[in-house]
Amino acid sequence: MKIKLKQFMLLLFVFFVQIATAQDGTVSGKVTDKTGLPIPGANVILKGTNVSTQTNFDGEFTINAKEGQTLVISYLGMQTIEVQASKALKISLQDASNELETVLVVGYGTQVKRKSTDNIARVTAKDIQQVPVANVQNALVGKLAGVQITQTNGKVDGGVKIRVRGAASISAGTDPLYVLDGIPLITSNESTNGAPTNPLLTLSPNEIESIDVLKDASSAAIYGARGANGVVIITTKKGKDGKGTFSLNFSQGVSTATNKKKWLNADQYVELFTEASINGTGDAAEAESTFDFLAQGTDWRSRQVNTDWQDLVLRDGLTTDADFSVSGGDAKTKYFFSGAYNNTKGIVVNNDLQRITARTNLSHKVSDRFTAGMNLSFSRSEIDRVQDDNAFTTPLQVVAQSPLSQARLDDGSANPNTLYANYFLAADNSFWKTIMRRLTGKVFGEYQLLSSLKFNSDFAYDLLSQTEDYWQGKNAPFMATDGEVYATSVNNETYIFSNYFSFDKTFAEKHTINAVVGMEFNKYHRRYQSVTSIYFPDDSFQTIDGGAEVNAGEGRETGYTFVSQFGRLNYSFANKYLFKASIRRDGSSRFGKNERFGIFPAFSAGWIISEESFLKENKTLSFLKLKGSWGKLGNAEIENFASRQLYESNPYNLKSGLTFFQAGNDNLTWEKSTQVDFGVEFGLFDRINVEVDYYNKTTDGLLFEVPLAISSGASTINKNVGKIESKGFEFTLNTKNFSTENFTWNTSFNITTNQSKVLSMPNGKDIVTTYTINRVGENISSFYLVEYAGVDPANGDALFIKNTVNLDGTIDRSTTNDYSQAKRVVAGNPFPELMAGLTNTLNYKGFDLTFTFQGEWGASIYNSAGRYQSVAGDYFDNQTADQLRRWQNPGDITDVPQARLYGSNGTGDSTRFLDQADFIRLRNLTLGYTLPKTILKEAGISSVRLYATGVNLLTFTKYNGTDPEARRDDTGIGEDFYSAPPARTIALGVNLNF
């Protein structure tokens, strides 16, 4: 074939024109974060077109665009920006965690914070990762306005109490509903040793993408009957488009107690109790005789033994964390795999935790319309536990032992002859091991029916399985047989089937509608068994089959069912007038047959004033929104058969029989919480964001056991009576203090007030417990105690204020040394009335620093162990060092009465043992350094970050006890009873990304 020169030249000309045109229409660039690290998988879109691409592993991209055109760059968790296309673009994305465009996760969907009329608090992965705590909840402390998070005490398995906007109940559950990737989690406490376990120990922080707390009725009403205590939505990490990434994190830390009480040493003990014996019995003989017993042959007069029992049971802990994750995807398939290992040696002896977790999240786009996926996780937590705070064989009760007694004898064995049972006898001859296994999974499908309408179907399953093994050898304290083994097994399982439609469309560029409507079915089942075996041939046999006699056994099965229909509508006009309505109808088998179903509606509205013409161009006020909401929620956290008339087996003389056990109530139903919320959000200079909210929630129809006449055959019946109210203000401030190429400094501050009061009670009567009262007009569970008045300087008697009523109706505030003549009064609030958190995040080149201060004010703690440990030698329990300032001579001015052995001088329950729990704590601090990328390029590593982090580093408080956050773990509200302080932890770690 012959090619003509003219044709060839024409072809060559066209070819070069195409090359030139292609070169003119292509721009390249690199996307990094604020520290200069590349961001793989960032989306780059040519604005107004379908032309798009993603950054590669090194954050680089090339896109068909002409110089001057607009590119939109976005990445999850980063602020979306627009830039003008040019050659060799260098683009830095800023964190968007506190920006108005943050996407919040709500029930069965998401919504942008700018257009939200709800009150939702949020933390993201960066807020909780690399904080060396055994549970997720502790990493949230101080970061969420209106949310109080308190770990019961310093045991690694200690329960965690979360209250959202104060207490919403008295006798029913007060914990929020936890939802993991759409799965309402089982959070029941299955411990049988008196102290609760924390079911959320089974979650690992490394797999969490974000946590959204739904605080108001507008947001929580989509969960209806279970939303009154708030909803905590946990979202796990997902794969993203782009090259696969591998992340590895390892840290190790040491822990100590945040504080230790000061106790009498041997010299002080002998001095105080000799004096107490003389004052109480007339001579020192009683004390010296007891000293001889406690010393067990050692010379107490020369102080041969001076045991610091507290130091023996509070040790240095050790925490090891290792985790990895692999994630990535393409246009069709996205994946995320992770695994984590935690090994925590607690600060309390013989209290340890080992946990392994694994997660797989997959999604696949089967077609242009249909996407399917699966989330699956497994966790195993093995805990070496100790007894609850009220047991003589719990470690912290050793502080009651005398310093004159040896903990161990010369041969290393535990001393069996101490004032109380020696804990080390229990440590050597018993163990309590708990294993928690959790399997959580969900399969889901999403079908795009129309461009604006999709259908979701989810099937989820949650299994929480727990075993406990309690072995006591023949030499264990209080052992009456040759050993005993107690073993339990419990399976809690729930499955949830959800189907819902979602509609999202904008009409005429001004009317935006987002709607969700669907149904959900939830089935729960629990099976529990326990067995006890005694008479073992040898201590090497530590399982049930080694005993000669199985002398006890128990088994129970229970369950409940929820069936629900729900709907939600969001409407906005011109992106400035906002309206939302939601409703849920719940039915539950827990309630009476006449009241099985409840309807829970909510409404909210908002006005983005800054979108109005008179403010739109305002340079100072960058954002302004008013919002308000109203709604009804329920609390269904009661026993599964609380409404039924029940009988229990009652065998006699090997004959079966039944006994009337519980009176039925066909009208028993949910506690109903009505909530109102008003708020304003505004931004200044695009650097300051402020959110202020007022809330008021009233809970009516409280679930109480109301007394019945003896003739009825049952002592009580469950009824809906009583009313309480919680109200307060929330203030959140987020600021960008500095933002330059090399240095950024952001601050987040929140403060919350709360007052929870009783509005009505069953039959208008007070409900009084050992230390607290629920009375109309007072705070929920107020402390109710005799008022301590100090010491009579003339004779050293403890004095109390009478608080009796005079004939003229006035209160007699005179004092008496007769405890029985004084009346109890409301003396304090177990819940804080003011909470605050302050977090600062600073970045300078490769360095990053984050620290959080947290504070609480207005709460009181009652030390119910004070009547044993702080009473100037009333009995031979070792005393706190402050008892050395006891009254000794006429005219002495002090708050500690005269030391009188067996004298009961000031030992009655009173405000003497009540203290304010106000504190400010440096909750966590993290300092990190990211190595320069140039150093890592040869190794194929995208980033290496070295960090040091600390938890509970500093505490500022006037509280006289062990710690203002330590609470007894067996029962009670706001009590300290030989409770372990929290751990102070310092850890070093490294994070690698490939």
Automatic annotation (TrEMBL):
Transport among keywords: yes
InterPro entries, per database record: Beta-barrel_TonB, Beta-barrel_TonB_sf, CarboxyPept-like_regulatory, Plug_dom, Plug_dom_sf, TonB-dep_OMP_SusC/RagA, TonB-dep_OMP_SusC/RagA_CS, TonB-dep_rcpt-like
Occurrences of domain TonB-dependent receptor plug (ranges): 113-231
Membrane-topology descriptor: Multi-pass membrane protein
Signal peptide from the UniProt entry: 1-22
Location of the TonB-dependent receptor-like beta-barrel domain: 417-952
Keyword Signal: yes
One Pfam family of this chain: TonB_dep_Rec_b-barrel
Protein localization: Cell outer membrane
Keywords associated with the record: Cell outer membrane, Membrane, Signal, TonB box, Transmembrane, Transmembrane beta strand, Transport
Family membership: Belongs to the TonB-dependent receptor family.
Protein name: SusC/RagA family TonB-linked outer membrane protein
Organism expressing this protein natively: Flavobacterium procerum
